[in-house]
Amino acid sequence: MCSDKYFDEDHSNLIVGPVNKPRWIYSVSKQLLDRVIWAYGEKEGLQFTLFRPFNWMGPRLDNLNAARIGSSRAITQLILNLVEGSPIKLIDGGKQKRCFTDIRDGIEALYRIIENAGNRCDGEIINIGNPENEASIEELGEMLLASFEKHPLRHHFPPFAGFRVVESSSYYGKGYQDVEHRKPSIRNAHRCLDWEPKIDMQETIDETLDFFLRTVDLTDKPS
């Protein structure tokens, strides 16, 4: 819920909602571990690097069965809706914006962190994201739909069932609270890794969709 234009590893405040919104358990648990590791580094000399992946996206990161129980990435949930001919649900209109990162860009950055050339990553917090690939969930759905409609395997799947706006309280429960935008600063990734993301969001969408459409009959048939 930070209001900064870019979420900076070293300067942005980590702001969460009230205790009666249990959605923040996930965020706070990660933040607690970051703070513990940082404290051990400062007080006990622990060698560490903290990295924060921002919405990594691509083939094989999860599967349609995970989407069926609501534990997948957003794009996988949307692909499931297209494959099964069910409406794409836009929570509170789908206006929430995220920055999506191709898995290949992400893994390249992670490899450089592990390599740690010149120990430049020691004691650093590094965002791994693509601030240029910003889109709302609604826009992601529209881009995915356009790719789906022109895919050579399109005729094997049901007609598009449309978009449906759903209130977050009815979908997630009363304890849910969302973040309207989250754009990472990648200043530390430039400085420590000589890294920047290269892959456009449309390419990632096309390749992710193609993977699922070509494998759905083999591994992801509805039970």
UniProtKB/TrEMBL annotation:
EC annotation from Swiss-Prot or TrEMBL: 1.1.1.-
Keywords from the named record: Oxidoreductase, Transferase
Taxonomy, superkingdom: Bacteria
InterPro entries: Epimerase_deHydtase (IPR001509), Lipid_A_modif_metabolic_enz (IPR050177), NAD(P)-bd_dom_sf (IPR036291)
Presence of keyword Transferase: yes
Keyword Lipid metabolism part of the UniProt annotation: no
Domain NAD-dependent epimerase/dehydratase: 11-129
MF terms (GO), sorted A to Z: oxidoreductase activity; transferase activity
Pfam family, one: Epimerase
Protein name listed in UniProt: Bifunctional polymyxin resistance protein [includes: UDP-4-amino-4-deoxy-l-arabinose formyltransferaseUDP-glucuronic acid oxidase, UDP-4-keto-hexauronic acid decarboxylating]
Organism of derivation: Escherichia coli
